[in-house]
Amino acid sequence: MSDQSTILKLGNERLLKPSAPVVDPTAPDIRDLLARMQHELDLVGGIGLAAPQLDDHRRVILFCLPEWRIPEGSTTRPEPPTAVINPVLEPLGAEKRPIWERCLSLPGLYGRVQRYNHIRLTFQTTTGETVVREFKGYLAMLLQHEYDHLDGYLYPMRMEKLSDLAYASELPLVDGLFAYSAAEFDGLDTTPAA
After folding, report:
1. DSSP-derived secondary structure for 42-54
2. Which residue in the list 40, 101, 146, 184 is annotated as catalytic?
3. Is 146 a catalytic residue?
4. Among 24, 184, 186, 192, whose Cα sits 20 to 30 Å from the Cα of 68?
5. Is the residue at 17 inside a domain?
Protein backbone atom coordinates (compact mmCIF):
# COMPACT_ATOMS: atom_id res chain seq x y z
CA MET A 1 0.00 0.00 0.00
CA SER A 2 1.05 3.54 -0.74
CA ASP A 3 2.42 5.98 1.83
CA GLN A 4 0.21 8.70 0.30
CA SER A 5 -3.44 9.03 1.15
CA THR A 6 -5.98 8.15 -1.55
CA ILE A 7 -8.97 9.68 0.28
CA LEU A 8 -11.27 11.52 -2.12
CA LYS A 9 -11.63 15.25 -1.43
CA LEU A 10 -14.54 17.70 -1.52
CA GLY A 11 -15.40 18.49 -5.13
CA ASN A 12 -14.93 14.93 -6.34
CA GLU A 13 -18.39 13.94 -7.57
CA ARG A 14 -17.78 10.29 -6.65
CA LEU A 15 -18.20 11.28 -2.98
CA LEU A 16 -21.86 12.05 -3.76
CA LYS A 17 -22.67 8.57 -5.07
CA PRO A 18 -24.85 6.46 -2.72
CA SER A 19 -23.41 3.12 -1.64
CA ALA A 20 -24.81 -0.36 -2.22
CA PRO A 21 -25.31 -2.98 0.49
CA VAL A 22 -22.60 -5.59 0.98
CA VAL A 23 -23.89 -8.97 -0.19
CA ASP A 24 -21.45 -11.09 1.84
CA PRO A 25 -19.79 -9.37 4.82
CA THR A 26 -17.52 -12.42 5.27
CA ALA A 27 -16.02 -12.15 1.76
CA PRO A 28 -12.23 -11.75 1.48
CA ASP A 29 -12.62 -8.53 -0.54
CA ILE A 30 -14.38 -6.92 2.46
CA ARG A 31 -11.41 -7.79 4.66
CA ASP A 32 -9.12 -6.33 1.98
CA LEU A 33 -11.22 -3.14 1.91
CA LEU A 34 -11.07 -2.86 5.70
CA ALA A 35 -7.28 -3.30 5.61
CA ARG A 36 -7.07 -0.44 3.08
CA MET A 37 -9.33 1.69 5.29
CA GLN A 38 -7.19 0.98 8.37
CA HIS A 39 -4.06 1.86 6.40
CA GLU A 40 -5.60 5.21 5.40
CA LEU A 41 -6.65 5.97 8.98
CA ASP A 42 -3.15 5.16 10.17
CA LEU A 43 -1.62 7.40 7.49
CA VAL A 44 -3.67 10.45 8.41
CA GLY A 45 -4.29 9.83 12.11
CA GLY A 46 -8.04 9.52 11.62
CA ILE A 47 -10.67 7.72 13.69
CA GLY A 48 -13.42 7.15 11.13
CA LEU A 49 -13.66 6.41 7.44
CA ALA A 50 -16.41 5.31 5.10
CA ALA A 51 -15.67 3.17 2.04
CA PRO A 52 -16.95 5.82 -0.44
CA GLN A 53 -14.10 8.08 0.67
CA LEU A 54 -11.81 5.51 -0.96
CA ASP A 55 -14.04 5.35 -4.07
CA ASP A 56 -15.52 2.01 -3.00
CA HIS A 57 -19.29 2.34 -2.96
CA ARG A 58 -20.26 -0.36 -0.51
CA ARG A 59 -21.89 0.27 2.87
CA VAL A 60 -18.81 -0.14 5.05
CA ILE A 61 -17.48 2.07 7.86
CA LEU A 62 -14.37 1.64 10.00
CA PHE A 63 -14.05 3.61 13.23
CA CYS A 64 -12.09 3.62 16.45
CA LEU A 65 -11.69 5.85 19.46
CA PRO A 66 -8.22 5.84 21.03
CA GLU A 67 -7.93 6.71 24.69
CA TRP A 68 -5.91 9.86 23.97
CA ARG A 69 -8.89 11.35 22.04
CA ILE A 70 -11.18 11.12 25.10
CA PRO A 71 -11.29 14.20 27.37
CA GLU A 72 -10.29 13.79 30.99
CA GLY A 73 -13.32 13.04 33.15
CA SER A 74 -15.32 11.48 30.31
CA THR A 75 -17.12 8.19 30.89
CA THR A 76 -16.81 7.27 27.19
CA ARG A 77 -14.59 4.24 26.77
CA PRO A 78 -12.00 3.70 24.02
CA GLU A 79 -13.16 1.74 20.96
CA PRO A 80 -10.87 -0.63 19.07
CA PRO A 81 -10.99 -0.53 15.26
CA THR A 82 -14.55 -1.62 14.52
CA ALA A 83 -15.91 -2.68 11.13
CA VAL A 84 -19.50 -1.59 10.52
CA ILE A 85 -21.08 -3.32 7.50
CA ASN A 86 -24.56 -2.57 6.15
CA PRO A 87 -25.44 -0.23 9.03
CA VAL A 88 -28.94 0.94 9.85
CA LEU A 89 -28.98 4.07 11.99
CA GLU A 90 -31.94 4.98 14.20
CA PRO A 91 -32.15 8.17 16.26
CA LEU A 92 -33.21 7.50 19.86
CA GLY A 93 -35.14 10.62 20.77
CA ALA A 94 -35.50 13.93 19.01
CA GLU A 95 -32.67 15.73 20.81
CA LYS A 96 -30.08 17.18 18.48
CA ARG A 97 -27.18 19.36 19.38
CA PRO A 98 -24.65 21.33 17.39
CA ILE A 99 -21.21 19.79 17.34
CA TRP A 100 -18.03 20.82 15.55
CA GLU A 101 -16.88 18.10 13.19
CA ARG A 102 -14.18 17.65 10.63
CA CYS A 103 -13.71 15.28 7.73
CA LEU A 104 -10.77 13.62 6.03
CA SER A 105 -12.35 14.64 2.71
CA LEU A 106 -12.30 18.33 3.76
CA PRO A 107 -8.86 18.73 5.34
CA GLY A 108 -8.26 21.83 7.43
CA LEU A 109 -11.94 22.67 7.97
CA TYR A 110 -14.47 22.26 10.76
CA GLY A 111 -18.22 22.67 10.47
CA ARG A 112 -20.89 22.95 13.15
CA VAL A 113 -23.64 20.44 12.41
CA GLN A 114 -26.83 19.46 14.24
CA ARG A 115 -26.62 15.76 15.12
CA TYR A 116 -28.75 13.38 17.14
CA ASN A 117 -27.29 12.98 20.60
CA HIS A 118 -28.33 9.32 21.02
CA ILE A 119 -28.52 6.67 18.28
CA ARG A 120 -28.93 2.94 17.79
CA LEU A 121 -26.77 1.33 15.11
CA THR A 122 -27.55 -2.14 13.75
CA PHE A 123 -24.81 -3.60 11.57
CA GLN A 124 -23.01 -6.74 10.46
CA THR A 125 -19.47 -7.79 11.31
CA THR A 126 -16.90 -9.52 9.11
CA THR A 127 -18.14 -12.83 10.54
CA GLY A 128 -21.70 -12.08 9.40
CA GLU A 129 -22.97 -11.53 12.95
CA THR A 130 -25.63 -8.83 13.43
CA VAL A 131 -24.79 -6.37 16.20
CA VAL A 132 -27.02 -3.73 17.80
CA ARG A 133 -25.32 -0.95 19.78
CA GLU A 134 -26.28 2.42 21.21
CA PHE A 135 -24.03 5.47 21.11
CA LYS A 136 -24.26 8.92 22.71
CA GLY A 137 -22.43 12.20 22.32
CA TYR A 138 -19.23 12.25 20.30
CA LEU A 139 -19.46 8.64 19.09
CA ALA A 140 -23.07 9.19 17.97
CA MET A 141 -21.89 12.22 15.98
CA LEU A 142 -18.95 10.36 14.48
CA LEU A 143 -21.14 7.48 13.32
CA GLN A 144 -23.80 9.78 11.85
CA HIS A 145 -21.02 11.59 9.98
CA GLU A 146 -19.63 8.35 8.51
CA TYR A 147 -23.14 7.02 7.80
CA ASP A 148 -23.84 10.18 5.77
CA HIS A 149 -20.92 9.29 3.49
CA LEU A 150 -22.68 6.03 2.61
CA ASP A 151 -25.62 8.06 1.27
CA GLY A 152 -23.46 10.58 -0.60
CA TYR A 153 -23.63 13.41 1.96
CA LEU A 154 -20.77 15.53 3.26
CA TYR A 155 -21.19 17.52 6.47
CA PRO A 156 -21.49 20.95 4.74
CA MET A 157 -24.71 19.60 3.20
CA ARG A 158 -26.08 19.21 6.77
CA MET A 159 -25.01 22.64 8.01
CA GLU A 160 -27.71 25.20 8.74
CA LYS A 161 -25.48 28.25 8.19
CA LEU A 162 -22.39 28.72 6.05
CA SER A 163 -21.01 30.90 8.87
CA ASP A 164 -20.62 27.65 10.85
CA LEU A 165 -17.78 26.57 8.54
CA ALA A 166 -14.30 27.49 9.75
CA TYR A 167 -10.66 26.77 9.17
CA ALA A 168 -9.20 24.71 11.98
CA SER A 169 -6.67 27.50 12.59
CA GLU A 170 -9.52 29.82 13.64
CA LEU A 171 -11.00 27.56 16.34
CA PRO A 172 -9.99 26.81 19.95
CA LEU A 173 -8.16 23.56 19.27
CA VAL A 174 -5.97 21.45 21.55
CA ASP A 175 -3.34 19.41 19.70
CA GLY A 176 -5.20 20.15 16.44
CA LEU A 177 -8.57 18.89 17.73
CA PHE A 178 -11.67 20.69 18.95
CA ALA A 179 -11.64 20.76 22.76
CA TYR A 180 -14.90 19.20 23.99
CA SER A 181 -15.77 19.09 27.66
CA ALA A 182 -16.19 15.62 29.15
CA ALA A 183 -19.96 16.21 29.42
CA GLU A 184 -20.24 17.30 25.76
CA PHE A 185 -18.18 14.31 24.67
CA ASP A 186 -20.41 11.94 26.64
CA GLY A 187 -23.60 13.52 25.30
CA LEU A 188 -24.66 14.76 28.72
CA ASP A 189 -24.36 18.50 28.26
CA THR A 190 -27.03 19.83 25.92
CA THR A 191 -25.60 23.34 25.95
CA PRO A 192 -24.50 24.08 22.38
CA ALA A 193 -20.78 23.67 21.72
CA ALA A 194 -19.17 27.07 21.12
Report:
1. HHHT-SEEEGGGG
2. 146
3. yes
4. 192
5. no
